[in-house]
Amino acid sequence: MAESSSRNLPSHASLDELVEFFDTHDMGDYLEEMPEVEFTVNLKSRRHLVALEEEVAHRLTEIARTQQVSAEALVNSWLKERISNLPKKRKSAS
What we know:
mainly alpha
């Protein structure tokens, strides 16, 4: 009969100690000791593709690199700032 490769998970006084433990140990060795969990994932994030002129995309990439952010983060930041400065559109009565 084959021996089980699972090990007993040592107890830890804090979550930080447990995290530190798994920084140097393989969690797969302790799977049988892990509690079963259930959770719900609600994915509502959407991506919208926008075509950019080549020169705009190139300049955007350069600026993003100098600011050490992704081009996506930079565009989102700029658009949020620009949109927040526009006057709010009033809802019309239907």
